[in-house]
Specification:
The protein has 149 residues and is mostly beta strands. The chain contains no helices and 15 strands. The strands form five sheets. It has a six-stranded antiparallel beta sheet, with no helix packed on it. A three-stranded antiparallel beta sheet has the order 11-10-13, with no helix packed on it. The protein has a two-stranded antiparallel ribbon with strand order 1-2.
């Protein structure tokens, strides 16, 4: 669905698209593709990513992604200049921010500050799912631990 927002006082019209995303089952979204978390060569295990929202030029400047980590899995240990929010959806996981590990349960929110080493992992026996909200225009992460051959 598309709607037009008009600002008569500014002489501007902005087109917006209204999109409702429906999760068809845990970890899968209607019409969206689940992908491997990162390309080969990255140090991670058992993690997938689904991009839920990427803005067009006229819309919000953030991106919303959904990640799932299998039991025993983890994301890469990395840092970057941009901040991001992690919102736990299902299962239990842990987030490392700096040197400390903190438990995330459903509906927990973690703020990852700029240039702070961080990683997420799942030490439980069930899937761990979370949303990650980041700036759409952002720097690339610097991985702090590389995959060994």
């Amino acid at each position: 669905m598309v709607f037009l927002e008009q600002h008569k006082d500014k002489g501007v019209s902005i087109m917006h698209s209204l999109r409702i995303l429906k999760q068809i089952k845990n970890g899968e979204w209607e019409g969206l593709k689940k992908t491997i978390y990162k390309p080969d060569g990255s140090h991670f295990s058992g993690t997938t990513r689904t991009i839920l929202y990427t803005p067009s030029e006229s819309e919000a400047g953030f991106e919303v992604r959904y990640f799932e980590i299998k039991p025993g899995g983890y994301t890469s240990l990395e840092k970057h200049r941009h901040i991001h929010f992690v919102i736990s959806k299902r299962g239990e996981g842990e987030v490392k921010i700096g040197r400390d590990w903190q438990m995330l349960t459903p509906n927990s929110i973690a703020l990852i500050p700029p240039n702070c080493p961080h990683q997420l992992r799942n030490n439980s026996d069930k899937m761990f799912g979370f949303y990650c909200i980041v700036d759409h225009l952002r720097d690339k992460p610097i991985e702090l631990l590389k995959k060994t051959e």
